[in-house]
């Protein structure tokens, strides 16, 4: 059958074919992005191109202050001149915002010649900036979660809420670094560390864009450390610092996260405004990194080229455009001068090259094509469906979980936390109730919506909960103290919530008081107004006081750390923050937050970030001013500790964790390899908990001054009570490199150390709140049986004012046991075997927190115990017999040093050369940090590539910064004492009845000197004990008191071997020296020229009395000796 095609059919087919052929390439979703951009660009006029480079505003066509009245003329104007985007981050109802956005998008797509969709923009720093949208906690708190997976979930929730109102682009995440804590915008950052900020910025970017919302990573670049901490001030630095510190986290979020837009920053870097920095925006971002999308200025950022930079003259918009656009800042945000409106004139005059304009516009179009806006320009939902997406129960639960994981327990003295559910609680403080203490970038009036700390505690408690404000946050008025004190006295425990405060996005710009936020910068990190006095007043009631810092940055009140029963940091909360806080306080959630930023003792110690260069903070020697006015002089600083009060990565848990068996997947690796590091983490408590495994890398020897170590991997793991998890983390060797002297990025050959830090559940001080003593069977010694002895011990300690806060009762607890005294003619075994061990461990803890190596710990103990070391009547390695050691051995014995070097390179030998000299290691030994778990890797030549060699995969833990777990300390002391203990036991078994003679002396300990206790070559160790002077003095006096109590116990003893004479002589030296301290030390004004101990009371022999009386003849000489020893 023959079919005949009619003329009409032929004509219809021709028309259809012609229509298909005429469909623009840029509208074809199957065409490549390059082809679509090229096709659209050649169809656009100069005016249309310029409009794609300028931001518009919803207020250009919608009167948001007058019931949303619509202006058609305004819409047509903004779409013809500022068509890049429509800003919507204003206080308007969700329905109004959505309808206003739809008006703009419908017009852009359907009423303009090319139908180019517009961006509908909003803020998304810690939640979608819209009325009734879910408010998450501030970024500085989110950083403390160390949980990228949860951050990505948050970003997805934020994107879902934004899309429901038609918003398709959010100004987030912020990937600045909090390196200048006076800066008001610290709260907007993920913290001080580049790796952490990069990982969380990547997760945030990925979460937004996987949901179809364009992320806008900001601020590019180096914005977080303005001079003097003042917003938009210049940032000083060089090329190496820019590339090593500021750019890596941005690159992670931008390139790996695939962000479709970037916001440039307000500041200048090394004198060049970043908004017009061709090297930064083009040579690095585009030419080196290969970034294809666009960069937009911050609000009014381009206008700063006129004022304050004074690069362009007043009113010279052409200059502004020619500075910013060719440099690589493609789009101009509103809030300034709209200088880019001069682009058509500049093109016409020939001053601006069309290629520069086309390049900028092509980047914008590429972003819109990549996001899929041409195919799906509108995502808004119907009015009645908005709350199926906005502020859902699921999103609020997520906000509470993230907030709880971000809360950091800084102190928990005597395990006050978690609180008992039936306890009566007095909630006090201006941040506790009455408004919600959010950070900046929340919508107007948000402070009146959300769960306050009081709300959360009241909901969780089974007891009585009261609220008393106590004072206003902005006032010095203390008239409310009496009511607050009364409330605390009537309760079982007080929870005091104080801190800093910010303002919402309307109030922030109205000049209202605040202490953080954009353009709110400070000179001090102390609590302001009446708040510190309120905290002191509540603590002084004697009721257990839990202090909660609700803030946007660290607070420097070290006295609160010592005096409060517990200290909790909750950076600006989410709308569910009150419930999150209560879940931590009551133990419903085991705290797992770790600090994303370090805490200084005072603003004068800034910068305080942990990853300082090797040459920084090399020899802290702080002084102090005591409450009674006594001044202890130091050198750096003269009257302040320059090290961190709490360091990055620190945070306590209600569980205890042990790290062990750290291993690397390979002993050698090239610079392009990835090493998998595994570590066994054990939950040794009875409570399930989460721990953050943090891996740091140290370049042992480098061609330039590099950070002492840097975070390169982390993972949060949940571990059930009593169980062990093997955690694996991949480390890219390429990330271990540096920018060398030729400004080339290289991974140098040589040794690298991979360190794992334990920060959970640690006591900070070696004097305050010592761990309880245990008896020979490992049980705690209960000192409550002998109140008289405890009172006597405390009275003796009180005489040492200003050191009356020394808690000696726990240390003297074994002396209260009559059975111990009956069995042992001298000090009880628990006293010697456990107390001194604990003191040594706590000394090590302090050294690690204060960033001091353990050779200084060894030197500290040597110095504390005097030039001629004293020993108790019974020491830990002599189970049944009295053992006395001479000055060459006792310090090592007390620390229980090991004979074998941990890296298997043989024994270390050394000798004690007298006053102030260090015990030097043998040849080939090297000092290292023993309190962290670490693997050692090396870079070696391998043809054209470098290799990483694993030198040792299972070494003792090395200190990094801050505190470490008690389990680490136990392994150090218990494991390392085995060699000398076995040596002594073998000697005893050979001749169990033999006693060391004067000639024979003690077992030779010189071979047991561990290399970690050797001072580095060239260091004059006799000039510094490596510990704050006031704590050293506390220890000296405490040790002297031990000897005095020892004399009391030894009085009347029937059996002492023939070394007793020497023991008395050693005691004489310690007592002698301690009395001299009373006359010429910091407490000399209270001694009044008299002995601060009773010679007769302690049963001192006439020989000792005579020796001390002889010494008194020349107190000036003694004072000089004492000062020399202290130095």
What tags apply to this protein structure?
1127 residues, alpha/beta, 31 helices, disordered C terminus, signal, Glyco_hydro_3_C_sf, carbohydrate metabolism, EC 3.2.1.21, glycosidase
Structural summary, described in words:
- This protein has 1127 residues and is an alpha/beta fold.
- Helices cover 33% and strands 14% of the residues.
- It has 31 helices and 31 strands.
- Strands 1-4-5-6-7-8-11 form a 7-stranded parallel β-sheet.
- Strand 9 and strand 10 form a beta hairpin.
- Helix 8 (194-210) runs parallel beside helix 9 (239-256).
- Residues 1-19, 760-790, 792-840, 846-934, 936-1027 and 1035-1127 have low confidence and may be disordered.
- Residues 925-938 have a biased composition (Low complexity).
Query: Based on helices, strands and strand pairing, what is the structural class?
Result: alpha/beta
What portion of the residues fall into strands of 2 or more residues?
5-15%
- Please tell me how large the radius of gyration is: 34 Å
- Give the terminus-to-terminus CA distance: 115 Å
What's the count of strands?
31
Biased composition (Polar residues): 900-910, 965-976
Enzyme class: hydrolase
Biased composition (Low complexity): 925-938
GO biological process, one term: glucan catabolic process
Describe what is shown at a glance:
The chain has 31 helices and 31 strands. It is globular.
């Amino acid at each position: 059958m023959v079919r005949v095609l009619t003329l009409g059919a032929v004509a219809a087919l021709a028309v259809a074919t012609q229509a298909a052929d005429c469909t623009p390439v840029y509208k074809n979703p199957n065409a490549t992005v390059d082809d679509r951009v090229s096709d659209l660009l050649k169809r656009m006029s100069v005016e249309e191109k310029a409009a794609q480079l300028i931001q518009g505003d919803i207020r250009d066509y919608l009167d948001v202050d007058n019931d949303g009245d619509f202006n058609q003329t305004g819409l047509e104007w903004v779409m013809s001149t500022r068509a890049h985007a429509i800003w919507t981050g204003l206080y308007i109802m969700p329905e109004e915002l959505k309808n206003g956005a739809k008006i703009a998008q419908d017009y852009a797509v359907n009423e303009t010649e090319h139908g180019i969709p517009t961006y509908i923009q909003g803020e998304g720093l810690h939640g979608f900036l819209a009325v009734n949208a879910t408010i998450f906690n501030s970024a500085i708190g989110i950083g403390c979660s160390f949980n990228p997976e949860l951050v990505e979930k948050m970003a997805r929730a934020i994107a879902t809420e934004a899309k429901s109102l038609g918003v398709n682009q959010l100004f987030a995440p912020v990937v600045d670094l909090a390196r200048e804590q006076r800066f008001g915008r610290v709260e907007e950052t993920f913290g001080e560390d580049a790796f952490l900020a990069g990982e969380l910025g990547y997760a945030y970017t990925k979460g937004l864009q996987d949901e179809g919302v364009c992320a806008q990573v900001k601020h590019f670049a180096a914005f977080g450390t303005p001079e003097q901490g003042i917003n938009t001030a210049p940032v000083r630095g060089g090329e190496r610092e820019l590339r090593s510190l500021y750019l890596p986290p941005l690159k992670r979020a931008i390139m790996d996260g695939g962000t479709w837009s970037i916001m440039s920053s307000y500041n200048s870097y090394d004198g060049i405004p970043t908004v017009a920095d061709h090297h930064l925006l083009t040579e690095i971002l585009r030419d080196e990194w290969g970034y294809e999308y666009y960069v937009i200025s911050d609000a009014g950022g381009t206008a700063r080229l006129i004022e304050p930079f004074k690069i362009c003259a007043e009113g010279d918009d052409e200059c502004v455009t020619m500075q910013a656009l060719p440099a690589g800042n493609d789009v101009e945000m509103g809030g300034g001068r709209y200088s880019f409106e001069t682009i058509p004139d500049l093109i016409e005059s020939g001053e601006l090259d069309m290629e520069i304009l086309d390049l900028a516009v092509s980047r914008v179009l590429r972003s819109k094509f990549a996001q899929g806006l041409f195919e799906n320009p509108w995502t808004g939902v119907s009015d009645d469906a908005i709350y199926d997406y906005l502020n859902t129960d699921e999103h609020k639960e997520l906000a509470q979980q993230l907030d709880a994981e971000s809360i950091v327990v800084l102190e928990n003295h005597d395990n006050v936390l978690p609180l008992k559910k039936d306890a009566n609680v007095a909630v006090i403080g201006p941040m506790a109730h009455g408004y919600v203490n959010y950070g900046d970038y929340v919508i107007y009036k948000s402070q009146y919506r959300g769960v306050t700390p009081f709300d959360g505690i009241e909901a969780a408690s089974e007891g009585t909960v009261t609220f008393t404000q106590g004072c206003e946050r902005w006032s010095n008025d203390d008239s409310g103290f009496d009511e607050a004190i009364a409330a605390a006295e009537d309760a079982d425990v007080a929870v005091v919530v104080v801190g800093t405060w910010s303002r919402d996005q309307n109030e922030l710009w109205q000049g209202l008081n605040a202490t953080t936020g954009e353009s709110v910068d400070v000179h001090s990190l102390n609590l302001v107004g009446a708040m510190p006095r309120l905290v002191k007043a509540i603590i002084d009631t004697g009721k257990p006081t839990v202090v909660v810092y609700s803030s946007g940055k660290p607070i420097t009140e070290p006295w609160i750390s010592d005096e409060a029963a517990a200290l909790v940091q909750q950076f600006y909360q989410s709308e569910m923050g009150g419930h999150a806080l209560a879940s931590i306080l009551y133990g419903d959630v085991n705290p797992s937050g770790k600090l994303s930023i370090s805490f200084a003792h005072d603003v004068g110690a800034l910068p305080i970030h942990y990853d300082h260069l090797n040459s920084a903070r090399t020899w802290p020697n702080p002084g102090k001013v005591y409450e009674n006015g006594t001044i202890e002089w130091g050198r750096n600083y003269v009257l302040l500790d320059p090290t961190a009060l709490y360091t990055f990565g620190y945070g306590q848990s209600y569980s205890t964790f042990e790290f062990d068996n750290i291993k690397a997947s390979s002993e050698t690796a090239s610079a392009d390899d990835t090493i998998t590091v595994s570590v066994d983490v054990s939950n040794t408590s009875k409570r399930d908990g989460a721990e953050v495994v943090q891996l740091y890398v140290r370049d042992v020897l480098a061609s330039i001054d590099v950070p002492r170590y840097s975070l390169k991997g982390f993972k949060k793991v949940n571990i059930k009570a009593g169980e062990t998890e093997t955690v694996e983390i991949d480390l890219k060797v390429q990330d271990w490199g540096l920018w060398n002297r030729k400004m080339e990025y290289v991974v140098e050959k040589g040794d690298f150390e991979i360190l794992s830090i334990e920060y959970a559940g640690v006591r900070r001080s070696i004097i305050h709140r010592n761990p309880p003593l245990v008896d020979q069977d490992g049980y705690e010694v209960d000192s409550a049986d002998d109140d008289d002895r405890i009172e006597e011990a405390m009275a003796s300690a009180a005489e040492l004012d200003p050191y009356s806060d020394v808690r000696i009762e726990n240390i003297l607890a074994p002396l209260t046991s009559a059975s111990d005294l009956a069995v042992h003619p001298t000090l009880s075994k628990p006293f010697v075997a456990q107390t001194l061990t604990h003191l040594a461990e706590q000394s090590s803890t302090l050294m690690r927190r204060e960033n001091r190596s353990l050779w200084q710990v060894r030197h500290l103990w040597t110095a504390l115990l005097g030039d001629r070391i004293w020993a108790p009547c019974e020491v830990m390695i002599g189970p049944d017999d009295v053992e006395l050691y001479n000055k060459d051995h006792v310090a090592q014995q007390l620390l229980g040093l090991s004979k074998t070097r941990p890296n298997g390179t043989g024994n270390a030998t050394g000798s004690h050369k007298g006053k102030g000299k260090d015990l030097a290691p043998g040849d080939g030994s090297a000092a290292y940090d023993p309190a962290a778990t670490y693997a050692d890797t090396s870079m070696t030549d391998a043809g054209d590539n470098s290799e990483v060699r694993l030198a040792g995969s299972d070494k003792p833990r090395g200190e990094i910064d801050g505190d470490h777990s008690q389990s680490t300390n136990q392994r150090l002391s218990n494991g390392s004492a085995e060699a000398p203990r076995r040596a002594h036991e073998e000697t005893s078994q050979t001749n169990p009845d033999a006693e060391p003679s004067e000639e024979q002396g003690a077992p030779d300990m010189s071979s047991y000197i561990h290399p970690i206790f050797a001072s580095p070559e060239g260091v004059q160790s006799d000039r510094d004990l490596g510990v704050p002077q006031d704590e050293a003095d506390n220890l000296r006096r405490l040790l002297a008191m031990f000897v005095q109590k020892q004399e009391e116990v030894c009085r009347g003893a029937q059996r002492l071997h023939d070394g007793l004479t020497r023991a008395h002589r050693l005691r004489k030296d310690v007592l002698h020296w301690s009395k001299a301290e009373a006359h010429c030390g910091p407490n000399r004004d209270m001694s009044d020229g008299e002995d601060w101990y009773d010679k007769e009371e302690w049963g001192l022999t006439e020989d000792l009395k005579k020796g001390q009386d002889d010494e008194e003849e020349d107190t000036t000489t003694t004072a000089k000796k004492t000062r020399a020893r202290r130095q």
